[in-house]
Structure formats: C-alpha cells, structure tokens
Specification:
single chain; 179 residues; mainly alpha; 65% helix
Length: 179
Amino acid sequence: FSKVRCKKDELMAAICVYLAYEVSGMLMSLKEIAKACIGVTPREILKNKKKYAKNISLEIPYFDFTTCIPKFCSKFEMVFKQEKFVNHLGKYVRKNNIIPGNNPYSILSAIIYTCLKLLKRDETDKYGIYDISKHLFIAENTVKKSICFLKQHISTICTVEILKKYKISSNNLETFINS
C-alpha cells in the first residue's frame, strides 16, 4: 500500500471488507463500511462488489438474518413475546421470499417495525421508521419499501391463531394495514 491512498484503493478495501463479512456469514451494513472509507458511497461498494465477486468466482452464502434478531430486539426494548413474534415473521418472510431483493437489514427493519406496531407497548411505541433506520444503518426509504412488501402479506401471516397466540388486537392489525 502506498502512503497516499486514493479513492480506488478505498473502494477496493471496502469491497474486500464487505465480501469478507458476507462470506463469513456476518452482517455489516454498507453504510458502516462506507463511513470508515474516504469518499466511498454504499452504492459504489454494492455496484462494484457484484463485479469483483463474479470475477473471482466467489460463492456468497445466503445470510440468515434471523440469527441477529435477539441483538436488534434488545436495541428496541422488546420483551420476549415481541421477540418470538419477530422470529415468527422472520421465518415466514424468509420461507416465502416476501421481501425479494433486499439485504438482510432492510428485511429485518420491516419485521421489527411491524412487530412494534402490532404488539404495542408504552416502552416501544416511541420507535418509528427513523429510529429503526438509524439503528440498522439503512435508509428510511429502504425501510418504507420493505414495510410495503410486508404489508401486502400481513393479513395472510396473521391468522386468527397467530393473533390469539401473540395477543395482537385486530384494531392494531387494521391500523397497521391502513397506515
């Protein structure tokens, strides 16, 4: 490495770090990596990452976002019942590919937001889309898009049994769908 680093070096380093995280199955957001680099945007990392991963024939395993649910549930002061519901939603979303083409953080953001709105508690009602996007290091619009995908399927996911099991009020479900 030369003493003077240019943007190309920063971008290459950022891509290598991101690919290393993906291959190891760990989760690191593009924003976090870009923040540590000089003059590199998350979009540039993602765009070039695909090209370099293809050139070196790198197999990137599917990242199971449900493994990091407990970490983020604690950030949002969720109780055990809410965490179980987040797990239920996560498994359903992953199995049925309801939020296609999104990174694990954006999928998780939609699931957490949905849970917070359906299983309202005074302690967690203060968290909105902005807070979730800030904690998960993704753009608010990305969270909103993921929520829209999830809203299309929420009435299918929340069967009568699920509503009873997690004690979700039908008013909360209706309000969430119509918001």
